[in-house]
Design brief:
Number of strands: 15
Distance between the termini: 42 Å
Number of domains: 2
Keywords: Signal
Helix content: under 10%
Strand content: 25-35%
Organism: Macrostomum lignano
Shape: elongated
Radius of gyration: 18 Å
Protein name: WSC domain-containing protein
Length: 196
């Protein structure tokens, strides 16, 4: 009998304009899950691409070929976790059905990973919660915007020496001098990543 994996994981690999830029994942920890799902980013969804969301299981995607890499496809918008508390890492002991070398949670447990973008120069970026500050400067703007940009990966690649974070939305890449968002970008949706 093959075990099915149900997970809130994040991972992808990309190539942007001939520059190798990818991601890897780091385990954040093992978290308790219940019938009122800890990771509920799939609430209201019936399909994600070719995958069905199963409501009898409380809004999960169940795949017999689940891997950490595949999970990004089905859970890219799932950002909240931990409302039922943390579990001992040893409670997440179930191998992923699609790659037995990877851990995909456990009985009523979720393995939660963070996404880390890396550049060929050895610099790393990771998604974080947004911090906003009201700031003023006599030495110029706190960010610059470049358009068009096709992906978060391309946005990260454009983050050079004076850039500490990025905010990617639609086709705009906001390159920030500090790892916080200035107040004027507070209403801009998108993905926020900082240099680590």
């Amino acid at each position: 009998m093959q075990t099915l994996s149900i997970l809130p994981l994040i991972l992808c690999c990309c190539i942007a304009f001939g520059h190798s830029l990818g991601t890897e994942f780091g385990l954040l920890g093992c978290f308790v899950d219940t019938a009122t799902r800890d990771v509920n980013g799939l609430d209201g969804w019936s399909t994600i691409g070719p995958y069905s969301v199963t409501w009898s299981s409380g809004g999960t995607v169940t795949l017999s070929s689940m891997t950490v890499q595949l999970c990004i496809i089905v859970s890219a918008e799932t950002h909240m976790y931990g409302r039922h508390g943390r579990a001992a890492d040893s409670h997440c002991n179930m191998a992923c059905a699609g790659n037995s070398a990877q851990i995909c949670g456990g009985a009523d447990r979720n393995s939660v990973y963070r996404q880390i973008y890396y550049r060929p120069e050895g610099e790393y970026f990771t998604h974080v919660d947004r911090d906003y500050v009201n700031v003023t400067s006599t030495s110029g703007p706190f960010y610059r915007t470049e358009q068009p940009v096709r992906s978060l990966v391309e946005c990260v690649y454009r983050c050079e020496a004076d850039c500490q974070a990025v905010l990617f939305h639609l086709d705009a890449c906001h390159l920030l001098r500090f790892p916080v968002l200035p107040h004027e970008l507070k209403t801009v949706a998108g993905k926020f990543a900082i240099r680590v």
